[in-house]
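Lay summary. Proteins are chains of building blocks that fold into shapes, and those shapes determine what they do. In this project we predict the shape from the chain. Here is one chain we studied, written as its sequence of building blocks.
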Amino acid sequence: MSLVGEGELTDSWVEWARTLSCATDAHAQCCVEEQDPLRKLDEQRWMKIVQPGLRWPGYLGTAYEPGGILSIGIVHTDFATAGLRDSHEVPKAVQGHQAWSEGAVDNAPWLRGLTSMYRQGLSWPGGWSVAKHHSYYWKELGESVDSIAYVNAMRCQWPGSKPSDSVVRRCISALPLDRVVALLRPRLVIANAKPAFDQLQGTTAVLYVHQLNGRNLERVAVGGPTGSVTVGLGNREETVECLRAAGLARHQPPRSAPA
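And here is the predicted shape, written in a compact code that computers can read:
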């Protein structure tokens, strides 16, 4: 299987990714101001994890098409965690992304390395912990790791524990998510960050899902091909049933015959 997508969407996504390497001054300033206290607390950890100035565009599955699912995490910490702790894909992708951002590597090898790392990280079991519940939703809604897209709300790296909502909100205010959503045109967005959910509500069907247990955390009306449903606060299984009722599963399960 090729790890490099082809076509107009891939080209547009690469162009969008290129703009991230020239992030706005406001976003760069946000990174400096929010990360500086953490750097002073533990310089060694900061230097190990953070690639200063790099923005991470995320992942575009090679089979992704408009109308797919976009998952939004919170922020990258160390890429070499969980199932990727000893993966050779991590240093290759990080070094390749650094070189590409500096104009020293062409698009094709950069995209191949980035896609390989993210595909491994977003596969479950065996990937990053963030993939556990996202992959459940993908599978239940008729998708796979190859047919989804993924991005972190902050699009940078974070050396500490989970950043506060105020930090995430400041970050995505400086670098909004609307452009990638407009580019990918997903039928559903599954976000782990409350500020991302807040920013995208009203523009697309979006859920706010807990990263550690997969529960839907906000009661929200979601529209789909078969109508609009209200997704309540509930576990993964209940949430999926609501999404299926709205027609948001790619392959709808057969309905039971009337008695």
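What the prediction tells us: The longest strand covers residues 69-73.
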